[in-house]
Amino acid sequence: MTTTVASATTKPSRVDEPRPADVFVAFGITGDLARVMTFMSLYRLERRGLIDCPIVGVAVDDWTVDQLKERARDSIEGAGEQLDPKVFERFADRLSYVAGDFSDPATYEHVAAAIDGAESPVFYLEIPPFLFGTVVKGLSEAGLTENARIVVEKPFGHDRASAAELAEELHQYIDESQLYRIDHFLGKMGTDEILYLRFANSMLEPLWSRNYLESVQITMAESFGVEDRGHFYDPVGAVRDVVVNHLMQLVASAAMEVPSSAAANTLKDAQVALFRAIADADPGHYVRGQYDGYREIDGVAADSQTETYAALRLDIDNWRWAGVPFFIRTGKKLPATQTELRLVFKHPQQLGFWDNAHRPEANQLVVKLDPSTGVRLIVDARRAKTAAPEPIQLDMEFAEEGGEGAAPYEVLLHAAMIGDSKRFTRQDGVEEAWRVMQPLLDAPPPVHAYAPGSWGPRAADKLISGHGRWHDPWIPA
């Protein structure tokens, strides 16, 4: 199918020099995402003095603004925030509410009245993707999109063709430069840190290549299961849920070449160039798993073949990475919740001065991303009190060296407000990521059962055969 990249990138931009938002409008403000993330993130931005505009909530529920403020308070406290009464009062004073059906043109007339005079609105669509086109069309026909930024939540399609179709629908009304696609991984401190860590340290940059690395392992482990989300998860599965978006973004940060400038499109060009160098994923190098008990969850088909675990190999066909496999695994009901990037170095040559019965552990560099962030270096060393050399771990937790960064949604919503699009995905990148994963969707192998609390099906061990073993994630004591 012909893609929409040309239309996405060649049209002249209507927003050449983004201005800070003078109003923030959240469609779906009464939903679960707002309850869990949005209110907390906006409140934190208020506390840091980074909001300077009204906030308008739009939803179908027949609420008053007082009900919205009460939901905001409950959501912020429910997220574990210690509420500062003065900060919350400032935040609550920004809130207003518009009730209406998203398919009704009158709703957008009411939104227009609520933001009358705004010249640089940001519309945040925390709603299901099938409503994106309806809302953007309504905003456009109400004359509200000329200088607007539109922020949308994943998923961006369910395969390559639907991703292109969704973009084509939205591009009828807005330019690609106005479209900010949220992937919360791009708001994590660790993901952003990877680029700086790689290229700002001259001792590390040359090591980050085929000359020194045996493989790269990316693990996104979750100790929890699907729980009450069976109706959502069963049609989706692990590859669509987190691999094609979150983990492919992590691959890009770990493997892309250095961007030549700080411009958003320069960064995205480097990401897309990396994606284009990745060969189509091979179903023969793909293992799917499903934890025992998954099919008993409400909303899950009794004969479901949906994967709750995915392990795969990617190969990058360029000068830096030729011959270095990237092994990716993710799963639910694993022993821990942890996301990390792990560089596994080649073993040294024969040590003529040492008893070669001892084979040193491969050196490793680990960047821990979630739920906390840090860097670990694993080296093999001889210590006086041990009979033989052993691996030692040199750890640095970001929280102990200046504190954790802002929460991902805090980072991303602020970036949307100020018009910084570097942390948002571009359409050609979205389609390239789907292109890489499409063979796994077209010809998925059978699912293997695995026990909750294990590291997934044993078949995943064969995937990495010849390149060492899967390393357990760095779990802080």
Give an overview of the whole structure.
The chain has 477 residues and is of the alpha/beta class. Helices cover 33% and strands 19% of the residues. It is built from 14 helices and 15 strands. Strand 5 (149-153), helix 7 (160-171) and strand 6 form a beta-alpha-beta unit. It is globular and about 80 Å long.
Task: Produce a short descriptive summary.
This protein is α/β, with parallel strands linked by helices.
Task: Chart the SSEs and their pairings.
Layout lengths: L4 H6 L12 E5 L4 H16 L7 E5 L5 H14 L6 H10 E5 L5 H10 L6 E5 L6 H10 L7 E5 L6 H12 L7 E4 L6 H11 L13 E9 L8 H4 L3 H19 L8 H14 L8 E6 L17 E6 L11 E6 L6 E8 L18 E7 L3 E8 L8 E8 L10 H11 L8 H16 L4 E4 L8 H5 L14
Parallel strand pairs: 1-2, 1-4, 2-3, 4-5, 5-6, 7-10, 8-15
Antiparallel strand pairs: 7-11, 8-9, 9-10, 11-12, 12-13, 13-14
Helix pairs in contact: 2-3, 2-4, 2-12, 7-13, 10-11, 10-13, 11-13
